[in-house]
Specification:
single chain; 118 residues; mainly alpha; Helix Hairpins; two-stranded antiparallel ribbon; 61% helix
Length: 118
């Protein structure tokens, strides 16, 4: 938060501002009461968006199209955190702390960072 003319406002590029916009979108369309927050529906929408991301890559679409589809997926992920009432910001930092400790390997000529099970 920053204070501007005695009023608290969010930085536009903050996680809190983004989450607030996604919440406003959910509220505008009453997702909570119209099935828009149902988990299996949201997973299907995320799979659809991932398919659109894949199409951008495989069809050589411009990076702007890829960015838009990635934004769609991010909005859905953030909305899922709202719908399921978990702190995505904290989940992100917890996961980053975990994966930063992982080792990497080359697998089929590409780097892979995973919990390898030998």
């Amino acid at each position: 938060m920053i204070i501007f003319k005695g009023k608290e406002i969010m930085k536009k590029d903050s996680y809190e501002a983004m989450l607030s916009e996604v919440q406003a979108f959910h509220d505008k369309h009453d997702f909570k009461n119209t099935g828009g927050e149902e988990l299996s529906y949201r997973v299907a929408l995320m799979a659809e968006e991932l398919g659109e991301i894949s199409a951008c890559v495989t069809k050589g679409k411009p990076v702007e199209a890829l960015a838009e589809e990635c934004a769609d997926l991010l909005i859905l992920v953030m909305g899922t955190a709202i719908a399921q009432d978990f702190d995505l910001n904290q989940a992100f930092w917890d996961k980053m702390q975990k994966i930063m400790k992982r080792e990497s390997r080359m697998v089929n000529g590409r780097i892979r960072v995973s919990e390898f099970r030998d």
